[in-house]
Amino acid sequence: MPSSSAFAAWLKRQRKTLDLTQADLAQRVGCSLDTMYRIEAGTRRPSKQVALRLAAALEIPPERQAAFLRLARDQQSRDETDAAEFLVQPPTAPASGSFCDTVTCQVHLPKPPTLIVGREQEVTELRAQLRRADVCLVTVIGQAGVGKTCLSLETAAGLAPAFGDGVYFVPLASIADAELVGPAIAAVLGVKELPSATIQQTLIDFLRNRRLLLVLDNFEQVVLAAPLVAELLSASPELKILVTSREPLGLSAEWLFDVEGLRYPPDDDVMEFESYSAVRLFAQRARQVQRRWVLAGSEAQAVARICRLVEGLPLAIELAAAWVRLLSCAEIAREIARSLTFLTTSRQDVPARHRSLLAAFDHSWKLLSGEEQRVLRQLSVFRGGIARGAAEEVAAASLPLLSALVDKSLLRTHGRQLQGMVQATPWYDLHEMIRQYAWERLVASGEAAATQARHAAVCLALAEAAAPGLEGSEQVRWLDRLEGEHDNLRAALEWARASGQTELGLRLAGAIWRFWYTHGHLSEGRQWLEHLLARAGGSVSAPVQAAARHGAAMLAHAQNDYARAVALAEENLRLFERLSDKRGMADSLHTLALVARDQGDYACATARYERSLALRRELGDIRAIAASLNSLGVVAHDQGDYGRALARYEESLALRRELGDIGGMAGTLTNLGCLAHYQGDLPIAAARLAEALGLLRTLGDKRVMAIALDNLAEVAHDQGDNERATALYVEGLVLKRGLNARELVAYSVEGLGRVARAQGRLERAVRLFGAAAAIRAAIGVPLAPGDRLIYEPIIDRTRTLLGDDAFAAAWRAGQQMSLEQTIAYALEDAGNA
Question: Which sequence spans correspond to the domains of the chain?
């Protein structure tokens, strides 16, 4: 098997053959000079990402890249020989590793001012496509500023050996008349027009027997010249054409190659920022203007935000990076968020259309018809995604108009995942920079208010259609649909708040509170509901306010804000009693019972649950009856009445299975698993909890999922598997961290304390127990009697083993930790803090 030093020696020889320094190769690959030094020294193997970029930088042919990666990563089996062949073959110079203007090289391409970054895979794919015998025309499609020209130049530069008669670049950006495309091509090729023939015929005669690659750049404004391209290809069997355009040419021979923005970090919690091509591009351009600039600390976080704001658009990244001489990256991010006009440059060697993002988009805007402009600006009210039906309702966007905007690289289309399947009906979205540009056009047109009102009406209709389906057999589909539309729902709520449309906002928020509850958007849901309720006054109907109050009360309970939950539920109860509304009374009593149970007032909780159940039986509401039975089982369980708890749970589960209520089934199965655990039947407990967890993962119910994980962790602990118990507690605690549900956090912290106690880490166990006790005291949620029977003896034995003074010090340290410090300390061992 080849050694690391053998690969390192080969790499060094290949680099020198390419006439590259270590710094040159490191820059091309996007790693630090120190990393490249270690790879060449044989003391470090490249990561998979670095190895892929090395293959591209060293121009390893596609058919040999797999072997190269195995060799670079030391993943070759003992009987393999293909990777080892790299070590015995002499280093090969690149086909055309650099741009060239000489006649002997026959590569007539302009030299780009900087190296291309992050397009290694696209370059490899494009070159492979153009080498195919059945491909003669490839059009690189993408929006303004995505880097189509640079990608095409890099691609063409490496294809010179395949085209004995040359590779030629024809710039068309300055041409607006399709009739001038022929003369432009002729000028680059050095073909002179003959008096006896048209320029088109002269070109055909010149190209007929030549093996040649033409790069036609910026074809979108001369797309009417597409027939000329077709005729040249038809008459010239050895000719191949690579086009860059914001829209297709619409020819039968055309192969489309879509180009998106560069990869960027999805959030701030990223370990290796420079593994993202958008970040590498920013870093390269920043160092170009500020040689001491370093990607580290808060600057790295700000760069990630910049890349997210511009969604990886290369032109925007380059324009942003140029500001590091004057501003911090955090300041640059704030300016971008404030206005597109910030992204400009004064460089004189940059085409006018690329000196600002606005100029680039203006160029595309002018190529649209009046109807296309109207639809694009009205679609800017959408956030996140655009369903075809919604586009038609809000912007009167017909399928041909949507198709035209997709073809012109201004609208993107993709399939959405729904219950693990791609929807047949396509979804659309706008790049955020294009959306902001179109929004400014919408505001200037005076159409914004009316368009936003239509958008809000569509969102309200969706929310009210979804509300009944958020429980029962269709809940997974509806929850997934609302998650996909969440940004649009937020935009509609914000418009309702800002425009004084409080009733519309409350109807919408009141319809989707269960979505917020199930998917863990507790704080956000409460903020919308409370804000709109505060503005309601007498202008909003009582039923609308009551529905919103119920949702707000349930979310407040989920976050242990019991005073607010009780106030909202009692206000609703008084209203419904005046109206003799049994359904409303039952829901309000159920909410009040939830609070009483959490606070340990089991008599009050039982009375309210029983009263709620009686009303629900009168109404014949099977789903609500099942919920009441489940809750009564919980109260019996808490009090140690396991027989009564089992009967209630089983009756509830039977009803929920009959209804196909996935969320309800998961909740009751979790409770049955917990009950089996308390009764010492660990196999049944594990089976029930595993079934519940599978349903919850499908549903995306983070809150109940976290509870099920805690219970599974307890079972694993009692089975002696502390490693698995820790992993399950940690997974649950990570979920809870985003829910701001303090009672649930206390359960996980107590569980991790039990694990630490079993491992003999007594001081850590006591600190965790003390921290959990402080959380419970702060929110007024004591341990249930059954839990006290478990924890109090453990704590007493730990005090005896540790000694009173050490125990008191550790307990006090735990009590003094904030919630955030407690979570960080609890996660410490797993490296998740």
Answer: 4-88, 107-258, 273-351, 729-833
What's CA 504's distance to the chain center, in Å?
29
Type of residue at 261: G
What is the amino acid identity at position 86?
F
CA dihedral (414, 419, 421, 425) positive or negative = negative
In this predicted model, which residue has the larger pLDDT, 367 or 551? 551
CB-CB neighbours of 717 under 10 Å:
20
In angstroms, the CA 827 to CA 518 distance is: 24
- Whole-number Cα distances in Å, 258 to 412, 459, 540, 556, 629: 10, 31, 49, 47, 55
List the end-to-end C-alpha distance of the chain, in Å, as a whole number. Answer: 41
CB within 8 Å of 449: residues ≥ 6 apart: 499
Superfamily of domain 107-258 in CATH is: P-loop containing nucleotide triphosphate hydrolases (3.40.50.300)
Amino acid residing at 464: E
Q: What is the CA radius of gyration of the chain?
A: 33
CA atoms within a 13 Å half-sphere pointing along the CA-CB vector of 359: 15
> Is residue 333 pLDDT above 50, yes or no?
yes
- Give the integer Cα–Cα distance in Å for 282 and 680: 59
Distance CA 382, CA 394 (A): 9
| CB 529 within 8 Å of CB 552 | yes
The model's confidence at residue 787, banded by pLDDT at 50, 70 and 90, is confident
Please, are residues 528 and 493 in contact by the beta-carbon 8 Å criterion?
yes
CATH match for 4-88 among 3.30.70.100, 1.10.3290.10, 1.10.260.40, 3.40.1190.20 = 1.10.260.40
> Average of pLDDT values for 98-123?
68
Question: What SS3 class is residue 422?
Answer: strand
Long-range contacts of 62-68 (CB under 8 A, 24+ apart): 62/124, 62/127, 62/128, 65/124
